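Submission checklist for the structure archive. All mandatory fields must be present; incomplete records are returned to the submitter.

[x] Identifier: Sulfotransferase domain-containing protein
[x] Organism: Stephanodiscus triporus
[x] Residue count: 502
[x] Sequence attached
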Amino acid sequence: MPRIMAVTRHRSKSVAAVLALCGTAALYSRHRHQSTNDGEARRSPAAAAGSRRSLSVALPNGGCEITWPKKPPKDVEITYAASYPGCGARMTWNLVEALTGLETGDDWNNNGRGEEVVTVKTHYPQSNGILPEFDDRIGRVFVMIRNPMKSIPSFFNHIYEMRNHLPVHSERAPLEEWTKWRDAYLDIEIAEYKKFITYWMERYSPENRLLLTYEGLTDDLIGPEVTKALNDFLGRARGVTPIHQDSVACVWRAVVKNEPPEHQAAQFKKLQSQAVNTPPGTIQKQTERNLADEQPRDPSGALFAKEQYLRNSAIPLLSPQSIPSPPVQQRRDPNVGSAEIFPIVSGEPANYADGEGGDPFDALNEEMQKILARGKELLRRNQQLDHQNEIHEGPQPQQQQQQHQIQQTGIRNEMYQYDMSHRRLDPGHHNSQRAGPDVPRPYLPRQLDNMMNMLLEVANRYENTDVRLYHIMMGYYEQIRKERAKMNSDEPLNVKSAGGFY
């Protein structure tokens, strides 16, 4: 049966909160990781089905039942789920688990599953993503893209929710907040969008890459067919047996349109209500701590003042003295960051942070790297104590039992200090559609010109090697051009000629 996201395992939940902090911090960093194009030979789902256990069972007549996913087999072939922010990462996370019945993970290891996943969600090389330590094991990718005119505002809505500690997909930022952020960061995100697409197109060959669009996946007419293509692609990976194609439409309605099977509708509504009404930062099953009325604290226990928050982050700048561990060293990809391939459209961003002087994003990233290093150390020590307890199963001297209990309590208490900043990627909040009024997201004429020029550059680059990407880019170009024509601005249209068939 298809599955939806499971509750994370209890031992790594608290440290997952630490890693989630770093995911937000990466909004302001530029990570470069070494990549690989090495991949294993693929087998068709039919040829491989006899050598692996079945994990998905469809109901008759195209029906389905949504349940929790399970851990994949140890030899599962992992697939990247790459998306530019604002292109439906949460939706595809849930969709993959529903189609395969297997647990998924992400580049920051937010749920503590590590390599034991069927897909790894990442925004890399956009600055909100990284490549995991086991990057060299991942030989395939599906890439989610969306019209940047829509995806960039969606990305900002997420930043706004994080900054204001709101439930995920619960609000759209006010117009004035959007315009301030837009004027400071839009040019950078346009360049990031181009860099993201180019990286994944260059890294993987066509047989190991699937290109999806948010528009196609959410379309009432073709959405189920797009999902069937994803289902087929996932099923070509070793260790994955996806749901029968006849039941894909049922899964698509449940995940993408939030229309679960009738016999599960009440259950879904209850889970979503619990997820929305739970204060951001709490972790499922952690019922002994009431976080509803608390504010974020640093590891020393002091409350953060509002002035300590960056304008575009939910994560405060911590004092270096509070987290002594050194930053984590990141691997760099020499093929990413070339000025020739990924030029910044119009210089440096405006200063959007509270306060003056210095680059707050570099400082924030440095502090978050320290938190990540500290979290990994706490997880290592906690697992080491668990291992010692397993070795010494059976009667133990009372003094030894007390010593182990004191050590483990101290570690877990420190881990809990990070919990209020943790944002679950799911579980329970299955609705992928953002709530709140549809606030307009206006652009300046020159900003739309820059966006169109970027799309033309990508389209022309792949016109002869990937005709589908070419048509997608030119379709986005036309949509933006129509919006630009409505502005009646005295500013002349500053866009290169499209040319060719699109």
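[x] Structure attached
Curator remark: The CA atoms of residues 56 and 243 lie 5 Å apart. The chain has two domains: 1-31+62-280+290-442, 443-502.
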